[in-house]
Amino acid sequence: MTLLKKGNAQTCEKLLAEFTTKAQPTNPEKMIFSGVGENDVYNISAPFEDEGELVIAGRVESRDSEHSNVNFFVERNGEWVPRSGAPVFELQDPFFTRIAGELVLGGVQIFPHPTNEGQHGWRTVFYKGQSIANLQEFAKGPDGMKDLRLVELKDGSIGVLTRPQGEKGGRGKIGWTRISTLAELSVDVVSEAPLLEGQFIDEEWGGANEPHLLANGFVGVLGHVASFDGEGNRHYYPMVFALDPETGAFSDMELIATRSCFLPGPSKRPDLVDVVFSGGLVRKQDGNAVLYAGISDAEAQKITILDPFLKYEQ
User: 57: domain CATH number?
Assistant: First the structure.
């Protein structure tokens, strides 16, 4: 594995060709969510422990709307049901991490766009607390930025993965910086984070979904790379890469699944059929990992893959 200060920008087409030569995922499984009426549950987090119980955060939304809530679900008799008494946040695309012993939860908040009438703006919002029950908002990212993620590093400092769009990031590129404490997380710090140079071609885009601290101190990043086709359909692929937090050097991306690896199912819109949202990854002791994913903006599934971060730890 080579870490580079400047990437070899890989296209989705090349990544797909490489992926087809590798061991393919197994055991796709639809996750059953109930107790939310006719709404869809998708773009879930990986399961995490809260007060001794495994919990999943999920985006809950009707098929014809972008207005969603984040609910917390627990498993009961093979189905995931809303956790009794848990808060509900008016957010999209939840994620979690743990920093300095606290649970940190984030999601995307939408709001009326300040200048484009009838459209939405968005930002990433962060909450922290000892448990889900006492989460309190503590930071917001810049307007217009999704895929903002945090990871506690080996020395106790915090890695910040960003994803600006527009003048700095085009359709969306990943940035990296470090802060000493959560109190230092600010719009300016996020906005000024340097990009990982040469990771994506300008016509495509990507972002980080869930960083993992690896045994050797590197950061293993679960993310996505995406493109449009000639008809304007979106194609989202789960990918991983490794990052050296000391130098900012990073490995080439590789795909870990495609939509065809999962079970057939509904789509929110025709242009979202080939969308896999990398929700989270649970690494197992046996060299495998379970990828939890949102599928076609309409449902959630999980699938077993070879642990993609093992080789970065060797």
Answer: 2.115.10.20
Find the radius of gyration of the CA atoms of the chain: 18
Q: Are 149 and 210 in contact (CB under 8 A)?
A: yes
pTM for this entry: 0.97
DSSP state string for 139-172: EE--TT----EEEE-TTS-EEEEE---BTTTBT-
**Strand, coil or helix: what is 137?**
strand
Among 278, 227, 172, CA closest to 11: 227
List the chain pLDDT tens, one digit each, 314 residues: 678 788 889 999 999 999 999 999 999 999 999 999 999 999 999 999 999 999 999 999 999 998 999 999 999 999 999 999 999 999 999 999 999 999 999 999 999 888 888 888 999 999 999 999 999 999 999 999 999 999 999 999 999 999 999 999 999 999 999 999 999 999 999 999 999 999 999 999 999 999 999 999 999 999 999 999 999 999 999 999 999 999 999 999 999 999 999 999 999 999 999 999 999 999 999 999 999 999 999 999 999 999 999 999 98
Residue 256 in any domain: the answer is yes
Q: What are the structure tokens assigned to 208, written together? A: 């980080």
Q: Count structural domains, the chain.
A: 1
In angstroms, the CA 110 to CA 264 distance is: 30
What is the chain's percent helix, strand, coil content, to nearest 5?
Answer: 10, 45, 45
Q: In Å, what is the CA distance from 307 to each residue of 1, 25, 63?
A: 15, 11, 33
**Residue 126 included in any domain:** yes
In a domain, 7, yes or no: no
Amino acid letter, 234: R
Structural domain for 269, as ranges: 12-313
* Closest to 259 (Cα-Cα) out of 224, 309, 308: 224
